[in-house]
Fold each of these.
Amino acid sequence: MLVLGGLAGFVLLVYVAVVLGGGVLIGHTSSPHVGLSVLATAVVALGFEPVQSWLEDVVSQLVRAGRLSPYDVLSRFSAALTSTYANEELPVRMAKVLADGTGAAGAQVWLVVDDRLTLAASWPPGAGSAVGAPGAGSVPGRRELPVRQAGDLLGVLAIQERDDVPLSPVEERLFAGLADQAGLVLRGARLRAELGRRFQELSTRAEELRISRQRLVDAQDAERRRLERDIHDGAQQHLVALAVNLRLAHTLAGRSPERADRLIAAQGPAATATIDTLISLSRGIYPSLLVDEGLVAALRTAISTSPVPVELHEVGTGRYSAEIEAAAYFCVLEALQNAAKHSSARSIRVELRGDPDRLTAIVGDDGSGIDPRTTASGAGLANMRDRVEAVGGTLTIETAPGRGTIVEARLPCLHIPDRQKG
């Protein structure tokens, strides 16, 4: 009505200005001049459309607070669908058009992704908390419309009306019109969301595979180092004993042939035990006796072939975890090997003490000892320390020239009384 009134005023103004005003100027006031009437008609015809557009803009500013008419909103939204906007920007454009066209306090575009509603865009930015999620309950001034295409629910358009300013019938029709046109946009947005989620899943899986491969490589390296260490600590001890006993037999061959024969005969079982140990270690398995009967039984068998007399004492020991028993076993074997090879010891004492939260293994010899300040730590000591510290234990070595060596390994652990033989 305002636009029509403005146009009527425009026609009247042109008639008064051109016909009446022009007649006064040319001295023709008795009746309208035909020429001036034709001129006024031409001016009205030429200026009618520009004036109409201007009046519509003015009325839009006054009545709709600067908002576009519903027709213009739908036209601009249709143009946006075919414009050069990036596909990921279309939900945002839709939310903005929806909020601007209806004058709502906020608007949201929700997508159905994996059967769940996901917020795709909101306008103004950050309006999500003001509008809320679809189906969140009865909220005054909240409007929702589902968006469907070929019977498939693609999403929901939601707006929050301003306080005491409900949607007019025209704005409600605009809301419905936008929902009708939104199907194509939401279908594309849902496909992009699903592709993005799938890409994220594949990226996560690729990272998990990379970490898994790294763990396998690390495990293989660790197993190789463990096997090398076990061969050094276990089988090499038997081989050292064989070498020492064979040298002793060679020495005795001249002055005590019978004793030499007995010593050589005893090396057959020792060689068999060495072969069995190598086979077990090559398969990555600890000595079967250690697994089946525990630390004390395994050590009794191991020290039986020592070239130096070994005395074993144990107090309060039982069964422990495989890691603890292996650490104690190979640590003791390494200490026995070092004593036999380097200390010229005449006797060795091995002591095992079991407490509720600790297993202590002590190996002491009466050999020559070493000076830690001048003697470099060899691979044997490093292996012992690595084994003990790997299970959270501590290793100490007390030695001095001429006073022997004491190696003490303290391993934190829980006693396992129900791990019995068999």
Amino acid sequence: MIAAGFGFRKMASVGSLQDALDRACQAAQPDVLATLEDKATAEAFRLFAKDAGVPVKAVPLDVLRRQSTVSQSDASQEAYGTGSVAEAAALAAAGPGARLLTLRHISADKLATCALAIRETS
């Protein structure tokens, strides 16, 4: 199971999200897209997920905060209580025992981030 986690600003577009995913994915394709619960309903994210044809996991803030991230953004820490919304969302969506496959990657316009997490299934 590969989860692509996203953090993004209100001004992010479908193109911002796609660029962040492209930078993070390289050869891996996600099974699920994830972001913070209150961001999952953003129009750009909904359109992006629909275009990608990948299910969405909306991660509650308390679950997001329990994830340990490698990247540390002061702004993310202050606003959400985590070092990286993208990394935390990816880990939470992938499930127990998940590990980061990629750290967060930032879109060229700096409006979106994406990280991948993987959970091995037997």
Amino acid sequence: MTRLRRAVPGAIIAMVAASLCAGPQAAADQPAADQGCAWQAELSPRTVGQVNFAYPDTGAWYWILPYQVRPGMTITATGQYPDSRYISFNTYDARFSSFSNGGVSSALPDYLIAPDAGSVNPWQRPGGGGTYTVTIGSDRTAANALPLAPEGESAGVGFLIYREYLPSGGASSVRLPQARITDDTGSRTLGGCVGGGSPLLASALSALGATAANLPPATADNLEFRRVSGAGAFPNADNAYLVATLTPPGDDKVVVVRGKAPVAPAGTGPTVWPPGASADVRYFSLCANLSTLPGPVVLNPAADGSTDNGCRSDRETLLDADRDYTYVLGTEAQRARIEAIPGATFVPLSSAHPTAQEAILLRNMLPASDFRQGVQSVPVNGTPAQAAEIMGPYPRATVCALAAVLDRTC
């Protein structure tokens, strides 16, 4: 644990340690946040070097707005549909969990976000530039209603998270929704203040590391993939995960993961959903992470001076004519030889921790209703055999000598 802590800022490690001792309920004991500003934390590819825990996917961008629940309180989020693969709004309780209230779910994916009058939701029909209004409160009839807190709770802590996957223009294209709070003190629009911080935000960030233990204990390698309940705090209801654990093999060996990929949309813009016959899932990825808390994604210095992260989204995954993938997990020193293998997608193992166990996560997002071979169809915490039976050409991991992969004997 001591060595792994160097990958995460000291202040955040302190918060993780406090959460491990006090538990998630500690958030409920924090004083009210200064709600003069919104979206106080950004977790994304551009911040992963500073905030890297809870098994992040570097295709995902998300922002956290912590709030103190009050009777009659409403948060209104207004914005413009972005040119991105996916967006969603989610509210979470003081235990950093999804919930429902009066039959209303705390998760709202893009294709269910009704547009404002005269606007178009591009996940409902082709078009762009439309606007939306999401209402977080007790009014279940409001436009795009999300519950503020679980049934029977009129005080405590909550979190609103806005997610965006694969924004077409990267950081320059992101336009965060405007947030407005109405409560017994009046109504006010919150300014943006990413990185502003608050006690509530500190609790949220600590939980992202401390509850990453949803994954299997880091005790023994298990190269067989099975479904787990989630990849950390603030679960995304639209994602499901398979996980395998391994220790880098060394001796010029690599780990090869083969399987059949679901069909995902080709671009980074919105796709009408449900997709008909055009796609199986909205998004998939494979990521290599250190399996010891706080569960950071692999980040290596690359030969060209850039940073190579351990995630490969569907857009970065090479497929053969049958839509089969071959991920080859190896060291940066092996990268050039791996990338010379036809159809191989290189995934880096950690340079800083070459003997540490890693967790390999395969994500599926939003399967089409008629796609039965996705991770969502696999029983949670079931066996690898169940996953293989349901998924058909199920992902399989093998340790091979790199020379054997090069000459196609492994």
Amino acid sequence: MEQNYTYTDAFNELQTIVKEIENGTTNIDELAGKIRRASDLIQVCKAKLTATEDEVNSLLQQISPAQETDDDESLN
């Protein structure tokens, strides 16, 4: 998996591979390699999405810890 590959780059390349397979422009000799590459790109996208989700959740917790405490106290 490429460490410095952006989500956008991986997603765009994945779209290109899918179009080539759908259009029939990929011959049978290249098909396995393209599918393997698509699988790698999907893993890049998933890793980027997970990392972004974790970072956003962490930032949101830093922004509103008092609100969560207030909500917890109102339940009691």
